[in-house]
Specification:
Blueprint (H helix, E strand, L loop, with lengths): L1 H22 L5 H118 L4 H31 L6 H74 L2 H11 L3 H8 L4 H26 L5 H29 L1
Helix pairs in contact: 1-2, 2-4, 3-4, 4-7, 4-8
Length: 350
């Protein structure tokens, strides 16, 4: 708008100059320049009018946005009023706490006499705590060795440690508040040190209980490891027994088939030719071929690899229960198939 007003003022000046120039006949050339400048100024006026219309539309949109922002400000003001109420309640609570602190300070004057006797006990407890700290350091080393296979118990230990650190932080915050409220709280530092020593004692007791629990869990884990190893060996042994039974059943079927195909006289004749007894001849017929021996070797190697895989799972880090379950189920399914095969063979032989 200011530019528009300036342009209008310039136009008026140009018109005035053009009028004065028209009166003077001696200077006709500058009037042409004035007309050109007038046209240019008129074009500028048109452009400025277009810009003003654009600015008016943007102003309307901005007004709408301002109304929305005002509504948001109203809602925020309601929230601020609620927060101010909460702050007032908290201030009342702080005043109550200050009055309690003053009452505690008055009570402390009577308890100073008992503090002197307690300081001696605190010194003795500090020596005990130093000894316990050394024992705690050794326990921590043992815990670090044990945590490689027992991450769950390490998490429990870290949680307990974090809780102790939070308690220490709370104590330090309380001490700082008490120092800020009154400078004459130096006497309370002795009581705070006693509380810290008590907390150290409690942490030592907590670590002892944690160590006992760790020892018990170590024993349980070792028992479970021995149980799993015995179970896998028993599974592998039963699978091998079933394989040998199936082979024997197959051989008995083959021998019976051979016996059915051959008469008793032909068996005796073959035994007399070979100069062996009939039982020896049956054992010769029962001899395994090369393919069967290779198959048994392959099965033995697979069983060996399976046992090694289970040993690796037991020695691996947590979690390994799903992999162990899959391996055991695989062997159980193999055993189930062998049992079914053996039962079918026994039915056919009968």
């Amino acid at each position: 708008q200011q530019e528009k007003e300036d342009l209008q003022g310039k136009l008026k000046l140009r018109e005035h100059l053009s009028q004065t120039a028209g009166k003077s006949e001696a200077t006709p050339a500058p009037s042409k320049n004035i007309d050109l400048e007038m046209k240019q100024l008129q074009c500028k006026l048109k452009n400025s009018n277009n810009e003003i219309t654009k600015q008016s539309t943007t102003i309307k949109s901005l007004k709408n946005e301002v109304q929305e922002k005002e509504e948001q400000i109203r809602t925020l003001q309601v929230k601020i009023s609620r927060l101010e109420r909460d702050l007032n309640m908290k201030r009342h609570l702080i005043e109550d706490l200050r009055s309690r602190l003053k009452a505690n300070q008055e009570n402390e004057k009577t308890s100073n006499e008992t503090l002197e006797s307690l300081e001696r006990k605190v010194k003795a407890l500090a020596e005990d705590c130093s000894n316990k700290k050394t024992s705690i350091d050794s326990l921590k080393q043992r815990l670090n060795v044990a945590t490689k296979e027992k991450t769950q118990y390490e998490q429990m230990y870290h949680k307990a440690k974090d809780e102790l650190e939070k308690k220490d932080l709370k104590l330090t915050n309380l001490e700082s508040k008490m120092i800020e409220t009154e400078c004459a709280m130096t006497e309370l530092e002795t009581t705070a040190s006693q509380q810290l020593h008590g907390l150290a004692k409690q942490s030592g007791q907590a670590l002892e209980t944690v160590q006992k629990k760790l020892l018990l869990t170590n024993d349980k884990v070792e028992e479970l490891m021995t149980f799993v190893k015995a179970l896998t060996r028993e599974l592998q042994h039963s699978v091998q027994e079933l394989r040998t039974k199936i082979k024997q059943a197959k051989k008995m079927g083959e021998v019976r088939a051979c016996k059915k195909g051959l008469s008793q006289e032909s068996v005796q004749l073959a035994a007399s030719i070979l100069n062996v007894s009939t039982t020896d001849l049956e054992e010769i017929l029962e001899v395994e071929d090369d393919e069967e021996t290779a198959k048994t070797k392959m099965e033995f190697e697979k069983d060996k690899e399976w046992l090694q895989y289970i040993q690796k799972l037991l020695e691996a880090q947590f979690p390994f229960a799903s992999y162990l379950m899959d391996a055991v189920l695989e062997k159980l399914n193999e055993k189930k198939k062998l049992v079914e095969e053996y039962s079918s063979l026994m039915k056919h032989t009968v």
